[in-house]
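Priority: medium. Attachment 1 of 2:
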């Protein structure tokens, strides 16, 4: 886990000190769901909003490296024997993505694909109730991410970036429940 955090931190610093770097705010709206239901639990999907900052370094016309730091809200909802319970969590999500595009950035519309790794760092686990009263989120939640997006060059902003992403958790987010976190999200970035 320390290795993943180290790689993400080094990538973030590298992106911020190099030339041809763009910065911008990020708004991310995700639908979180879990891969399996266990122990008689029915795990429900939840909306998970995030906001933060993205830094992107252009390496070549077909490849760039993007680092994002997001403040994220997560909600775990489960039902057991007709009783619903939940846990609220607040995370810092750090992600490093490779952005692959067949066209250069001089075009008005530019489609791309992305692939990367990230880690969610739990800041707060709260609101546990009923049968989840003694549970909490794991302190770090590594995940991989894959996505597809479109960049729009505009006269007001340098670039408007819209993407659809899938995140897959690599560990159990809650220690006593064997379920992996998944999220499909719409991400909006405005680069300056």
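Attachment 2 of 2:
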């Amino acid at each position: 886990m320390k290795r993943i955090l180290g790689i993400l931190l080094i990538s973030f610093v590298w992106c911020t000190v190099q030339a041809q770097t763009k910065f911008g705010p990020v708004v991310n709206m995700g639908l979180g769901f879990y891969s399996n239901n266990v122990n008689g639990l029915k795990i429900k999907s939840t909306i998970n909003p995030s906001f933060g900052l993205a830094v992107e370094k252009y390496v070549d016309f077909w490849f760039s490296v993007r680092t994002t730091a997001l403040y994220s809200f997560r909600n775990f909802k489960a039902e057991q024997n007709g009783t619903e319970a939940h846990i609220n969590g607040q995370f810092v999500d750090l992600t490093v993505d490779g952005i692959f595009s067949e066209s250069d950035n001089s075009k008005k519309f530019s489609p791309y694909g992305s692939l990367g790794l990230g880690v969610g760092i739990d800041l707060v686990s709260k609101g546990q109730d009923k049968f989840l009263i003694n549970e909490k989120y794991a302190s770090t939640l590594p995940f991989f991410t894959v996505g597809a997006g479109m960049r729009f060059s505009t006269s007001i902003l340098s670039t408007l970036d819209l993407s659809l992403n899938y995140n897959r958790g690599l560990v159990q987010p809650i220690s006593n429940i064997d379920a992996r976190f998944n999220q499909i999200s719409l991400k909006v970035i405005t680069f300056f």
